[in-house]
């Protein structure tokens, strides 16, 4: 994702990035991150959302 570790954990703590907790540690599933990225980035074959 090309973001720093601290940024990823901050985003996870605020609920902006999908994660689950094991004790006090945030864990990330690749499939959850891929889905999160897919919903944030518009696809070329789709128009803008406001159309």
Structure report:
The chain is an alpha+beta fold and 51 residues long. It has one domain (5-40). Helix content is 41%, strand content 12%. It has two helices and two strands. The chain has helices at 5-14, 30-40; strands at 20-22, 25-27. It has a two-stranded antiparallel ribbon with strand order 1-2. Strand 1 and strand 2 (25-27) form a beta hairpin. The protein is elongated.
Structure, briefly:
With 51 residues, this protein is an alpha+beta fold. Helix content is 41%, strand content 12%.
Keywords for this entry:
two-stranded antiparallel sheet, 51 residues
SS strand fraction: 5-15%
Order of helices and strands: HEEH
Give the biggest beta sheet.
Answer: 2 strands, antiparallel
Q: Radius of gyration over alpha carbons? A: 13 Å
Helix content: 40-55%
Uncertain residue ranges: none
**Tally of separate helices:** 2
Q: Mean pLDDT across all residues, rounded?
A: 85
Whole-number tally of structural domains: 1
Oligomer type: single chain
Strand order of the largest sheet: 1-2
**How far do the termini sit from each other?**
29 Å
Compile the SSE list and pairings.
Elements: H1 5-14, E1 20-22, E2 25-27, H2 30-40
Antiparallel strand pairs: 1-2
């Amino acid at each position: 994702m090309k973001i720093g570790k601290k940024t990823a954990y901050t985003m996870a703590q605020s609920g902006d990035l999908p994660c689950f907790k094991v004790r006090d540690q945030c864990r990330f599933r690749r499939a959850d991150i891929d889905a999160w990225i897919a919903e944030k980035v518009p696809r070329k074959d789709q128009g803008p959302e406001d159309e």
